[in-house]
Amino acid sequence: MSGVSPSLAPMRAEFGDAVERHLVSCGDTVVYVRRDRSHDVLAWLKETPSQEFTYLTDITAVEYRDPEQPLEVVYQLRCLDRRADLRIKVALDKRGPLEVRSVWDLWRGADWLEREVYDMFGVTFAGHPDLRRILMWETYSEGHPLRKSFPLRGHFSRSEQTRQALGANPEAHYSMEELSLAEAFQELPADMRERLARGERGFLR
Amino acid sequence: MGLSYRGPGRHSEEVTTVSPVSPNWVTTRLDFLTNWARSNSLWPMPFGTACCAIEFMATAASRFDLARFGMERMSFSPRQADVLICAGRLPFKLAPVIRRIWDQMPQPKWAISMGACASTGGIFDNYAMVQGIDTIIPVDVYVPGCPPRPEGLLYGIRLLQKKIMGESLADESLRDEKLVGPSGLFLSPERIDELSEPFGNSVDQTRST
């Protein structure tokens, strides 16, 4: 299963120079997309009938050791029907603002993935409804741990880290809204709500 | 317990008749009885965060059977627990949680730090991990291993029982609550930095610093 993804040619035809270089790595096609068009490209990939990358596997980011190289935000997409994968990368110049458009409006699952990238790399996602730290606690003030400029043991001394950790409120990590199924229920698709209301559990075609 | 010889009670003038540092026949007999009862009815509060908790579960299960040593029941409420067993690495995010659980446990109470990560931070000498839970709560027994086998944990528990058998009711400092002070720590900052210092292979680990 090697070779370039068949999605690349129509992407180039649609978006022209917004689609930058591409490469094939271990059989997966990696396509670099310009930052200002990333949301358009991802929306097109999700919604165009011949593409239908309806499943967002992951969002992550990469920072290279070379300080000149840009930081990359990585979107791993999958089309469940065609069983096809596609990796989209958006390069962010580290001298400019680390910001991309959120894809939360396309895939709801992007919510926590983007929060994680924000927490670990400090990339902000414009349009994200609730961009807070997710792994580190919310009052964490040392920075973004997966950046290369972040020392392995953190910026503060161990005693200062311990003091700040003990000062955190262990109940402040999750809001009740976040965990409330009753509220999430209203957000579910109508047919799923109906099935749950009938008492049905699990997936039925 | 009620064997207090200090304090501003009615009999404060008679304090010197029985010295707490030289226990007499009554107190030593009573010590033996209380310590025997305490050490053989330790209810553990399991605080399992990682692979050590799997070994801990094995210790509690039928093959190794923790109940042989009086730990008949896991106390999932700190209010009825005697010994906190921290089985696994403790991230800073969980530090206030284990501290609150420890504060909720009534005296007398003890703590076992199970495994390399709980005792020292282990392989996780990084920004996210507490470098030994003794910087958060006082610890009585450290069980080495990665993770320790159930025999190791049982040995640690036996050591704790031995330690309890050596306690004395006359020594009230054993039951002192070591609370988090106004500095936000329960030890001095210098002591915490000293306890958290890297050692072994970690010393040369200076990536990205």
Structural commentary:
The complex is a heterodimer of chains A (205) and B (209). Chain A is flat, with a radius of gyration of 20 Å. Chain A has helices spanning 8-15, 38-47, 110-121, 158-167, 176-179, 181-187, 190-197, and strands at 19-25, 28-33, 55-62, 71-79, 84-92, 99-101, 124-126. Chain A has a domain at 8-135: NADH:ubiquinone oxidoreductase Nqo5 subunit (Beta Polymerase, domain 2, 2-Layer Sandwich). Helix content of chain A is 29%, strand content 22%. Chain A is built from seven helices and seven strands. Mean pLDDT of chain A is 83; it is low at 175-179 and 201-205. Chain B has a single domain, classed as Rossmann fold (3-Layer(aba) Sandwich). Chain B has six helices and four strands; from the N terminus they run H-E-H-E-H-E-H-E-H-H. Chain B has helices at 25-39, 51-60, 95-104, 115-120, 150-165, 189-195; strands at residues 44-48, 83-87, 110-114, 141-143. Chain B has a four-stranded parallel sheet with strand order 1-2-3-4. In chain B, helix 2 packs across helix 5 (150-165). The termini of chain B are far apart. At the A-B interface, helix 4 of A face helix 3 and helix 6 of B.
Task: Summarize the topology.
The complex is a heterodimer of chains A (205) and B (209).
Chain A: H1 8-15, E1 19-25, E2 28-33, H2 38-47, E3 55-62, E4 71-79, E5 84-92, E6 99-101, H3 110-121, E7 124-126, H4 158-167, H5 176-179, H6 181-187, H7 190-197
Parallel strand pairs in A: 2-5, 6-7
Antiparallel strand pairs in A: 1-2, 3-4, 4-5
Chain B: H1 25-39, E1 44-48, H2 51-60, E2 83-87, H3 95-104, E3 110-114, H4 115-120, E4 141-143, H5 150-165, H6 189-195
Parallel strand pairs in B: 1-2, 2-3, 3-4
Helix pairs in contact in B: 1-5, 2-5
